[in-house]
Design goal:
Helices cover 45% and strands 15% of the residues. The chain is α+β, with helices and mostly antiparallel strands and 415 residues long. A hairpin with a 6-residue loop joins strand 2 and strand 3.
């Protein structure tokens, strides 16, 4: 490509330029990434050429026309030729940049005909992956930081991939177009893996999409690129690109693992089993804010140890985890964890009510959580029914206006 040829010619000028590559973009692992890399390189050298040209003329003019060698300042107000030149040349440069930039942008936004579709959900502070279409359909898991706590606290040497390692990486096959359907469950996040040329905001209540097609096997790392709270810097992304054969093997093993590890909703769980399972859920989802000793972070995240909310009515404890906490109609740092299963919520609530100095002495069953979900669902359905009844009483002219306005009631009005 043009950018590659230009970059190669300039790199041949000397090792001083080549050594600067350590400060360049990551090596791309897709044709789209290569296009973006080449575009970046081309524009960079266009800017360098403009910089050198403008400052060369400026310094030459200052030096050769200085007063000390007898030059006198010219007295003129306009020059048509000069004005035409400094208008036409920038215009040509901008058009020369706009054509390849537009071509690359259109390529970047073309998410059609994917081989694999994966839903990516941002949470504070982890990623959720759901394989929606293609080989691996039905696989679902959360991906969280796996850097040991002692490295983060500075009591142990930092590893090679410090803060860029996870317990469950995203796994995709090489040479396949992967469409990412990206959203968020709480606040703004951004899924960013530079080598795959993907950087897309994850917005609560909205679905955006992007795509990549890895051209070689390997491990590629990224991070959340949108400030999303206390542990924004602890939200890495790791993508494993496997051969088709190894990917098919991974899919088979993953589905077997999911089937074997699936919680039995009909199982009569004992209190000890729920506490043990709850400790695992707490470590994966809650420890970052509420800390391992349950004391939280004063002034930021409340303590669970000794909390009357935690040890109070079971309905309140379940609702807090299931729906989160809002004040004055606005969400707080305590987000909803309704993506957890009934067993996981029952287990973590049981654990919190009986851990540390908390001695509730009871156990929450998955059936209790299921009932709370059903109650919330029924309330939501009731609200929708009321909206339908209210719309039914609206004059036809008003209903038509609502339907055409893009208002949230338009779907109901259309019915």
């Amino acid at each position: 490509m043009t950018g590659t040829r230009i970059a190669g010619a300039l790199l041949a000028l000397g090792p001083s330029i080549a050594c600067a590559s350590r400060y360049n973009l990551q090596e791309p692992n897709s044709a789209l990434g290569q296009s973006i890399y080449d575009l970046h390189t081309m524009i960079l050298w266009v800017c360098v050429a403009i910089f050198v040209g403008v400052f060369s003329v400026m310094f030459y003019s200052v030096f050769k026309h200085r007063k000390s060698v007898g030059h006198k300042a010219a007295n003129f107000h306009e020059n048509t030729l000069v004005e035409v030149i400094w208008t036409v040349i920038p215009f040509i440069i901008l058009i020369g940049i706009a054509v390849p930039a537009t071509r690359t942008l259109l390529h970047q936004r073309d998410t059609s005909a994917p081989d694999l579709t994966i839903k990516v959900t941002g949470y504070q502070w982890k990623w959720g992956y759901d394989y929606l279409q293609g080989e691996g359909e039905g696989i679902s898991f959360l991906s969280t930081l796996s850097t040991p706590r002692d490295q983060i606290d500075g009591t142990a040497p930092k590893g090679e991939h410090y803060l860029l390692e996870v317990d469950e990486p995203l796994v995709v096959p090489v040479g396949k177009k992967v469409r990412l359907v990206i959203t968020a469950a709480d606040v703004l996040h951004a899924w960013w893996v530079p080598a795959l040329a993907v950087k897309q905001d994850a917005i609560p209540g909205f679905v955006r999409d992007s795509w990549f097609k890895a051209e070689r096997e390997g491990v590629f790392r990224g991070q959340c690129a949108e400030l999303c709270g206390k542990d924004h810097g602890f939200m890495p992304i790791v993508v494993h690109v496997l051969s088709e054969a190894n990917y098919a093997k991974w899919v088979g093993e993953r589905k077997q693992k999911m089937a074997a590890g699936a919680d039995d909703l009909n199982k009569p769980w004992t209190a000890d089993e729920l506490k043990s399972r709850g400790a695992q859920v707490f470590a994966q989802n809650c420890v970052a804010c509420h800390q391992g000793d349950g004391m939280g972070i004063p002034g930021t995240f409340p303590a669970l140890n000794g909390s009357k909310v935690v040890t109070g009515a079971t309905e309140g404890s379940i609702a807090t985890v299931l729906h989160g906490v809002a004040r004055d109609g606005k969400p707080t740092a305590m987000q909803a964890f309704k993506q957890l299963s009934d067993v996981e919520i029952a287990a973590v609530v049981t654990y919190a009510r009986n851990a540390w100095d908390n001695k509730a002495g009871d156990a929450i069953s998955p059936a209790d959580v299921k009932a709370a979900r059903s109650k919330q669902s029924a309330a939501a359905n009731g609200a929708e029914a009321a909206a339908v009844m209210n719309v039914a009483a609206v004059p036809a002219s008003v209903a038509g206006a609502l339907a055409s306005s893009g208002d949230g009631l338009s779907a109901v009005v259309a019915r």
